[in-house]
Amino acid sequence: MKQMDQKLFTETRPLYVTSRESPHVIRCRIRMRDLIDSEAFRHAVDTTMQRYPYFCVELQRKNGDFYFAENHRPIVITNSLQGVELNSADSNFHMIAFCWQDNWIILDVFHGLTDGTGAYEVLRTLLHYYCSERYHVELNDEGVRLVGDEIPEEEWVDPVVSRADLPTPSRNEMPAALNLIDAAGLEDDRQNTVYSIAISESEFMRFTLDNDGSPGTTISLLLSRAIAKLFPDAEGTIRIALCVNQRHALGAPLAHQSLVGGVMLEYKDKMRDWPLDRQGTIYRGMVFAQTVEETVLAGVATQAGMNRMLLSKESDQERLEVMSSINALTKRLVTATVSYVGKATYRGAERYIRDFRAWTSSASNGLLVEVSAVNGRFTLDLIQHFSSPIVVNAFLKQLEDNGIVYDLQDVQELDLPNVKLPWTEGDA
Fold first, then answer.
1. Is residue 16 within 8 Å of residue 310, measured between CB atoms?
2. What is the pTM of this model?
């Protein structure tokens, strides 16, 4: 087995952006068809984590540098929906943990350790082992990472840190974006809220294709239209950041790190009176232009530069101040963020899943839409810094106006576990 002692690089920026108020954590909530069998779940977790040794790590500091070192303590599973604080004694100092209650399974993982693509891989393995044992069935394991596989080097190695051929990013001065919190007068609310909406996958895909879109671009466009109608006279450009998986451009499809970039979709004034299908074509064109390899790699270079700048600072306080400045810039440039990992493809285990939610901290601009495609439906988790339904209602009106049937499943307070940080008060 490969020895773990990885110096942090790609993980640096997420480490310094997380906070108790906004934990940089991915929380995948899965409601199964039946009550959870705790013994089968424990066995499935233990087996799964044997396949992902690079996630069985603890954060250590050596000579001022942070490392992920091997952590042989058991992965923690709790019978609750709250979970445990990551990187603490409660989590056995792991950056990943699981919990369950009734028929819900939850995965919590530090977003600097991996992204949605990496989390989906873990869940694909976990659900395969759990459902096989829980239901005494033999499931299709095509595309599922299993214990006994040879773990290729490409899964381990950070594909960014050693790249010396990344293009030089161009300076692109963008005008300020419309800020939802300012436009809606919600500066003092600060209530993190999740609105979960379910849509038929087949019906939405038909609508998307009819309007020359993809799931991510169509949702971004409908959100843009909703915001434009809600704030017709507000200052600033409506600009949606659509998350992009950087693995393809990096030639690293198996990498486990958090490798997320973004394209900027601007809802220009001249587009507002155009029909939806024409707007969809424009948004798709923006995505195409910004996802060519050279452009994605330029974005990688920008992020790598941020990490190197952070690592050049001598103190944690200096690094935190740098990240605060970067977040302020992001808030000025982006109206909202849309994230779609892609169809989950949990294989034979999907038929045992009733509901799937993907939560993480809302973007600094105030609104993040996490899109999941599991078991025949899309779930849209609209994650906000504020409780007001003003934007959600405008978005739902767009769905209604376009004949898209939806189910507003519930409204909940965003509940994410904290990540205990080495520089916070009371830490060793």
1. yes
2. 0.94
